[in-house]
Design brief:
eight-stranded mixed sheet; alpha/beta; about 45% helix
């Protein structure tokens, strides 16, 4: 699995490139230094409210205290919504609905979630409910071969709610532990497709009362603060339980992640640190901040 340090190299370069000297013990902390720190954090898409909070910290002004420690702790404390995901539900199978816009990495995320489930000793089933994109079903079948799990699909143009219903019923009959439903990419402004998500939820609820147990929004980490705007609009249309951030290894704007937590009131549950099956990991605020700041 790719490490946090490696995955966040691009964002770390943006943050530390011009301010590395500020973290040295006893370094000056005047207006010019604070301006440099602010500029670096803005460049990495750290939200403005958090930048203001960092700069307002009394200890930022005291050169006797490590500035690095002040910045790190303030970033960690920004994550008020802790990760609460658990691979369990009151009844089996656990049903996870994966949603998001086109190109965010939903299909890959669904497959990697199946891989994580297997690492927990569980039996997952993937549901190919993205029936609009021609290559989506083939893509998820290829991933399923890598992960070594079953797929329920209905072919291009099939009813996605019916595919989801069938996947849950199949999981019940096969005594599988988890169903992960990959849905089509959609914008919040596309009412028919947003209505379809509601239909999928009702359909799986009929096949298994209480399902879906988790509805995870997948966000492209390379979008920075634009992903937060996207997520706010999406969350107004469907009840979400958590967020997955993908493509962090390709992003220079990973500083936006605290905004997802605070401004959406949702936990960041998983993050994608690379392209391999094992590169989806549980989000850890301390590891995230360590990756942003780099080795001391």
């Amino acid at each position: 699995m790719k490490s946090w340090i490696d995955a966040l190299a691009r964002t770390r370069a943006v943050i530390s490139g011009g301010i590395r000297g500020l973290f040295r013990a006893g370094s000056a902390r005047g207006r010019e230094e604070k301006d440099k720190l602010e500029e670096a954090l803005v460049s990495a898409d750290v939200p403005l409210w958090l930048i203001q909070q960092i700069l307002a910290e009394p200890n930022v002004k005291q050169s006797s205290l490590p500035l690095r420690s002040v910045v790190e702790q303030t970033l960690i404390d920004a994550f008020s919504k802790k990760t609460s995901f658990a691979w369990e539900s009151a009844v089996k199978p656990m049903v996870i609905l994966v949603v998001g816009v086109n190109g965010s990495g939903k299909t890959t995320t669904a497959a990697k979630l199946a891989w994580l489930a297997k690492q927990q000793g569980l039996t997952p089933i993937l549901a190919a409910a993205d029936t609009y994109r021609a290559a989506a079903t083939e893509q998820i079948k290829k991933w399923a071969a890598i992960v070594d799990c079953d797929v329920v699909s209905g072919g291009e143009g099939a009813d996605s709610a019916a595919v989801s219903f069938d996947a849950v019923k199949a999981a019940i009959s096969r005594k599988a532990d988890v169903v992960i439903i990959d849905t089509a990419g959609r914008m919040h402004t596309n009412k028919p497709l947003m209505d379809e998500l509601g239909k999928i939820c009702r359909s799986v609820g009929k096949s298994l009362p209480g399902a879906p147990h988790e509805t995870l929004l997948v966000l492209d980490g390379t979008l920075g603060n634009n992903a937060v705007t996207q997520a706010k609009l999406f969350s107004e249309c469907i009840a979400l339980t958590g967020v997955v951030i993908t493509k962090l290894d390709g992003s220079a704007k990973a500083g936006f992640i605290p905004a997802v937590n605070k401004e959406l009131g949702l936990p960041v549950v998983f993050v994608g640190l690379g392209e391999e099956a094992g590169d989806l990991t549980v989000f850890d605020p301390a590891e995230f901040v360590k990756g942003l700041m780099g080795p001391e």
